[in-house]
Specification:
The protein is mainly beta. It has one domain: Jelly Rolls, CATH 2.60.120.10. Helix content is 13%, strand content 41%. The chain is built from three helices and 13 strands. Strand 6 and strand 7 (109-116) form a beta hairpin. It binds fe (ii) ion.
Length: 196
């Protein structure tokens, strides 16, 4: 895909009132903000901003390894990103493994499944204008710089009961203070400030 072209087209027709309904500050990670550009059952378009408040976690990543309910494409609009893909490693137990069912869909959130092993399969770097595709069942994380802006095109949800998350602690991740809703003005300000 040409992520930059799709982003420019969506931005030109953006309705900030509609976008704000699904846009949040501190999305999954402190300082990582999410502006929704389009939301339909078949296709969702998102922009993630690693703002000045963003700091990588103890492993140097935006979040810990996880998979998704959907396939998606990512385009780096600004900054730099590494996409790191893992395979399960049955001979290891170096992670605390959780299943996740979204509370927004009546799920019970994170549920501990004990220990599991992961080994790194690939670790590729992407500069502005470069794209990568990820399948829903691939386990990955990203390493990004402060100031990085990512455009994501997310396809329809797969019929799966849960996603998977790998944590370096036995307790589920602390989500307090995350997911603060944006106003339409916030949406416009984020795009103007970080993507002039
Ligand atoms: Fe992800």
């Amino acid at each position: 895909m040409d992520g930059r072209l799709i982003y420019e087209n969506l931005k030109a027709s953006l309705d900030p009132v509609e976008a704000a309904k699904h846009s949040f500050f501190h999305y999954h990670t402190r300082g990582m903000h999410y502006v929704n550009l389009l939301r339909t059952p078949r296709l969702t378009a998102k922009v993630y901003f690693a703002t000045r408040e963003y700091r990588p976690n103890i492993n140097g990543w935006a979040v810990n390894p996880h998979d998704h309910a959907y396939n998606f494409d990512t385009c780096v609009l600004q900054g730099a990103a590494r996409n790191i893909i893992f395979d399960r490693d049955e001979n290891n137990s170096n992670w605390h493994y959780f299943t996740y069912r979204s509370p927004m869909a009546d799920g019970e959130g994170f549920q501990s499944q004990g220990l599991a092993g992961l080994k790194r399969r690939t670790d590729f770097a992407y500069n502005p204008g470069m794209n990568y595709h990820l399948s829903h069942d691939e386990i990955h994380t990203i390493a990004i710089d402060v100031g990085t802006v990512l455009f994501l095109l997310q396809y329809e949800d797969k019929p799966k009961s849960h996603t998977n998350f790998y944590h370096d602690l036995p307790s589920p991740p602390d989500t307090s203070g995350l997911y603060k809703p944006m106003t339409p003005h916030d949406v416009e300000r984020m795009i103007a400030e970080y993507l002039p």
